[in-house]
Design a protein that fits this description.
five-stranded mixed sheet; alpha+beta
Length: about 140
């Protein structure tokens, strides 16, 4: 059965620093789709973050590139398999140089925390009790 994939393209200031940041979070880089202007971060079998230098990113749009440390362009949300995995990923992001993007959210059946990566892109990591989803 076909599984739709997502490739999130993000402009980055320092490609090597961003590569290190995401590998410190435990993700791998697909070198087949990476070069001196881009790095393909493998988040899962169907989720990839394409880190592009700002000049490379600009080749794909006629719009002005935002400075994600000053303006919000997108909120990226990743699911986690448990509350502990939420904390683990966010804590690794903070240790790798990321920053806290907001207060933790805890509704009992749903828990999340968020961080900004090195370029200010906001990543939310959320766990939801499977029983709540099945409703």
């Amino acid at each position: 059965m076909y599984q739709q994939m997502i490739f999130v393209n993000l402009a980055v200031e320092d490609l090597e620093a961003s590569r290190r940041f995401f590998t410190e979070l435990g993700y791998s880089i697909n070198e087949q789709f990476s070069d001196e202007t881009a790095a393909s971060v493998v988040i899962s079998d169907t989720i990839f973050a394409m880190l592009l230098t700002r000049p490379k990113y600009a080749e794909f749009t006629k719009k002005e590139l935002v400075d994600a440390t000053r303006s919000s362009e997108v909120l990226l949300a990743l699911s986690a398999e448990s509350r502990e995995k939420v904390d683990e990923l966010v804590d690794r992001a903070l240790a790798a140089g990321g920053s806290i993007a907001g207060e933790p959210m805890d509704h009992g059946f749903m828990y999340g925390r968020s961080f900004d990566d090195l370029d200010g892109h906001t990543w939310e990591v959320v766990w939801m009790d499977p029983a709540a989803v099945e409703g």
